[in-house]
Structures are given as C-alpha cells and as structure tokens.
Amino acid sequence: MPKQxxxxxxxxxxxxxxxxxxxxxxxxxxARLQAVGIVDVPRLTSPEPVPLGATQYKEQRDxxxxxxxxxxxxxxxxxxxxxxxxxxxxxYGTIKLAGExxxxxxxxxQRHDLxxxxxxxxxxxxxxxxxxxxxxxxxxxxxxxLSVPVARTMGAPAVVAYNGSLEAARTLxxxxxxxxxxxxxxxxxxxGAGAAEHAGLAADYLAGHDLDAAQHVEEEAPxxxxxxxxxxxRTAAGLIVMGSHSHxxxxxxxxGSVTKTVLRESKVPLFLFH
Length: 274
Prior knowledge:
The protein is built from ten helices and ten strands. It folds into two domains: 4-135, 3-Layer(aba) Sandwich (Rossmann fold); 153-273, 3-Layer(aba) Sandwich (Rossmann fold), CATH 3.40.50. Helices cover 47% and strands 20% of the residues.
C-alpha cells in the first residue's frame, strides 16, 4: 500500500484534479499526503534584454513578481490544507519550495512512494511542448507517476498495457508494489507479435501476488493506442498502467508514441514508470 503520497499544487484545473485524487487515495490507504507548491524562480526572473540603465528596474520588478508568486502559493497551500482537513485525511502537510519544478519534484519524490501530477490539455500539434515537463520528469524520477486529467475518474477496473519489455515489467512490478492493484478488476492488454506470451507472463506475475487478471490478446493491432483506449472504455477502466519510455525500435513503438497518444486521449489517470 502507498504510505507517502506527493502531489504538485499550482492552482491550475489539472493540478486541482491531481490534488483531489491525492486526497481520495490518502483516505483510502491511510497514507500521509504531502502537497508541494513550487515557485518557479528561474522562469519568473529569466534574463531578458533591457535598455541601458534599466537593470535596477528589472531587479525591482522581479522582486515584486516573486513576492506576488510566494503570496499566491501560500494561499493555494493553505486552501489545500483546509481541504485535506475537511476530507478527513489523517496525515497531511504542505511545503513551499523555490526552484525549477522538475528539479524540485525529482528531489522531493525520493521521500515518497508515488507522485501525482495534473495532466495538461493541449491540441495534438502542441502536445509535445505541453508535456515536456512530464516527459523529463518521467525520465528522471525514481518513483511511479500518476498523471491525472481534469475530468478524472478512478473506478475499480485497471487496464495494464504489457508488451514484455523491460519497461513494461518494471512498470507492472511498481504498480503491484504500490498497492493500487489490490481490490481492482485487472485487464492485461497485449498487442502485436508475441502478444499471447506477453499477456501470459503478466498474468502469471499478477497471480503470484494473488491478483487475477483477464487477458486481451491481439496479434494484429495496427492502431495499438486506439485499441488500448477502446478496451479501457469497454471495461469501464478508471486507470491505465503503461511504461513511459523504452529503447529499441519495437519497444519504442509501443511505449513511446503509443504511450503519448494514450496519455493525450485518455479520460482516466495513467500510472507511468520508466
């Protein structure tokens, strides 16, 4: 079971969705919940050309911007602490830190079991830029990440996308270790060449932890992301479990572009691990 949860809080709708789910999970598992508010000093005070003699003005303006940002973050964290108390979360805390967001989260998550972040929404042609922070975070973090959409639901069924790769195996092990698999209806989805063997491996691993899983096997799957999403809808899944990155042409096809498509289109949280 997760004992320590970390959630990012910046006041955006996607951040609020992650915060609400974090409260639900903290109550369900009796976990300690830590909310971190990050004042992005490098971005707020980034260097820019200024007219001759205007350096002092920029310094004063930067100071005013930072003061406003700190005050706003204090307000957001105070409101979140009140929400935790109102929801009956037994153990919670908030912390305000200054720095580059990915650097802060990569460091702070080492004290926790699971990181929850809000999923940004953007058109397909802007998706790469919108998810750059999440992409970097997944490459560097030592813990699994739960990406939470704004209109989130997290019902009992979970779909596990599994292709037999090292990343898929690591993600499945992290999912089981997190405790989030317990008490859920599980569906293993394996697509493409070797799908039957891959699904069997995942099901056997889950069975070894007293977890039953239905297997969805398709040797021919020209649109794997769409099939994963379709199976998730058909099974009323409230969670999708996928590896975030991989190496090698075939593995990258499944857990590179496919993961990005599922992440962009999914209406339910994604459990991601690298």
